[in-house]
Structures are given as structure tokens and as C-alpha cells.
């Protein structure tokens, strides 16, 4: 019996899906080719065949950039879920019997509120993964990665390298002074080299708004506790702002978006849990969006 619907050959389409996701996340064919260890022409052919089977264009290509079409944006979440499920199935039957270590560093100021729940789910799904998490500033975490002290680091715009996972809006949160715009803003920020610190300073300088650094906190939890006590305002990603803190939408200039990138230890490319953890985190963020 014949069907008019396009049929997929699994062994071909998983490779095509990986290539498509790589092009989107890396922002182009050249970087994607390095990530999936194939030539640019091979990736281009895979995606062309995928588009042909789907009867839809997924990517718009110019000499300078690659962007997703509306169909591509819709297809991306499905592609990630299919790949994650395929990887999970592979791990279920081939994961090592002995615990495998995965040392993850996460920039504290990027950590979403539901990160602990995601970690708990990952541990339940992968009991043979000996997962450890190190929260800190992005710069020092990347240094630890270079020293082979970590296997995977999630950091912000400190380094343009790494795999782009998602972008997120930065917001002002906390409390404005009751006296009005003539009163210097009390800023509560993490120490340098936290990138949000420089963003806050530069954004306020553009409107000639006066400020003073009231408190320098060494963790996001300390920042949030200070703000909850009514002692100033800060800059955080939207997903890191708890319900107990207000987001300030008027009276201050809009902040830019921040990026979250995954940085891998090249000595750990064969770790069976490295890519799975990245996919798990992205799925969790997509579900929470």
C-alpha cells in the first residue's frame, strides 16, 4: 500500500536533524560543519533533502547570515525533542554500567529558577551519571574548563565561543528610589567580571542617570535577598527573577538580551552524558518558556 506522505529513513534523518539544529545553534554552516564533523556541502545537501521531504523551507540563506523561516522555528523544537529522545534511547541500552562523571559549571547569574528541578529530573533519568554542579562567575568557570577541572560550562557573553543555546531578555528588578529621577539609583550587583554589571553601567550612562553601587553581592541568591529587603535594584535574566521581586518596566531604559552558550571540554567529547545534558537543559527551558 502506498502513501503520499513523505517517509523518513531514520538513519538518514537523524543526521539531517543534527545538522539542522547545529546550523541554527552555531549561526552558520561553517561552525556547524566543525561541530558535527562533516563538510559544509554535506550539511547543505542534508538540509536541502530535509526541506524537500517536508515540502517546506526551513532556513533562509544569504552571503552573511542564516536565519530560520517560520516553518524552521516551528520545526526546531520538534527536531530537538526527536534528537533528545533518540539519544535517551541510545543511552538506555548503551550507558556504561559504571558511573560516569560529568562536572558542570553554570554561571550563577544565568541559572533559571527551575534549574534545581531540572537537575533532579536528569539524575533520576540517568542514575549512572555522577553529576556535580559548580555555580560561579562565567570567567572563572571558563578558566576551570581550560584547566580540565570541568567538563561543561554554561556561561553568558563573556566569551563568544561555544554553542549558542538560547537568548533571554535582561530586566531591571528591585525597587526604585521614592524621591524620583534626581536621586542616584542604589545598584546591587555581582562583582566584576559579571557582564551584567557593565551592561547596567553603560545603559544608565546613555541617559545620564546617576547611580551608586550600594552592595556588591557574591551570588544571585545574595542579590535577590538584598532586593527583597528593599535595598536597591539590579539586572537579571527574566528566568532568574523570583515572583517575590517586581520587574521594573517604566522609568528605566530597556536592557539588551543576553546569550547562554555551552562550552565543552575537548577532552570529554566522548562522554556519553555531555550532549544529553545540554539537550536536557534546552528542553527544560523551552518547556518553561
Automatic annotation (TrEMBL):
Q: Pfam families, alphabetically?
A: HTH_1, LysR_substrate
The superkingdom of the source organism is Bacteria
User: Where do the HTH lysR-type domain residues begin and end?
Assistant: 12-69
Coiled-coil boundaries: none
Q: Which PANTHER family match?
A: HTH-TYPE TRANSCRIPTIONAL REGULATOR LRHA-RELATED, TRANSCRIPTIONAL REGULATOR
What is the similarity comment for this entry? Belongs to the LysR transcriptional regulatory family.
Task: Tell me what this protein is called.
Answer: LysR family transcriptional regulator
Amino acid at each position: 500500500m502506498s502513501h503520499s506522505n513523505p517517509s523518513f529513513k531514520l538513519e538518514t534523518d537523524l543526521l539531517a536533524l543534527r545538522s539542522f539544529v547545529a546550523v541554527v545553534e552555531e549561526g552558520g554552516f561553517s561552525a556547524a560543519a566543525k561541530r558535527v564533523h562533516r563538510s559544509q556541502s554535506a550539511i547543505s545537501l542534508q538540509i536541502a533533502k530535509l526541506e524537500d521531504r517536508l515540502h517546506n523551507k526551513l532556513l533562509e540563506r544569504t552571503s552573511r547570515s542564516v536565519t530560520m523561516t517560520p516553518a524552521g522555528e516551528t520545526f526546531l523544537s520538534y527536531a530537538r525533542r526527536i534528537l533528545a529522545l533518540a539519544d535517551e534511547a541510545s543511552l538506555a541500552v548503551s550507558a556504561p554500567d559504571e558511573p560516569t562523571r560529568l562536572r558542570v559549571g553554570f554561571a550563577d547569574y544565568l541559572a533559571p529558577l527551575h534549574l534545581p528541578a531540572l537537575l533532579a529530573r536528569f539524575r533520576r533519568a540517568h542514575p549512572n551519571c555522577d553529576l556535580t554542579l559548580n555555580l560561579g562567575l562565567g570567567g572563572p568557570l571558563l578558566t576551570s574548563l581550560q584547566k580540565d577541572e570541568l567538563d561543561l560550562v554554561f556561561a553568558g557573553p563573556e566569551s563568544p565561543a561555544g554553542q549558542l543555546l538560547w537568548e533571554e531578555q535582561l530586566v531591571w528588578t528591585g525597587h526604585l528610589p521614592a524621591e524620583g529621577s534626581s536621586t542616584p539609583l542604589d545598584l546591587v550587583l555581582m562583582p566584576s567580571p559579571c557582564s551584567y554589571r557593565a551592561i547596567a553601567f553603560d545603559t544608565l550612562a546613555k541617559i545620564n542617570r546617576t547611580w551608586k553601587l550600594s552592595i556588591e553581592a557574591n551570588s544571585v541568591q545574595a542579590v535577590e535577598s538584598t532586593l527583597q529587603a528593599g535595598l536597591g535594584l539590579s539586572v537579571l535574566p527574566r528566568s532568574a527573577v523570583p515572583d517575590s521581586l517586581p520587574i521594573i518596566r517604566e522609568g528605566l531604559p530597556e536592557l539588551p538580551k543576553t546569550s547562554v552558550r555551552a562550552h565543552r571540554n575537548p577532552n570529554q567529547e566522548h562522554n556519553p552524558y555531555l550532549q544529553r545534558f545540554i539537550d536536557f537543559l534546552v528542553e527544560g527551558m523551552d518547556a518553561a518558556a
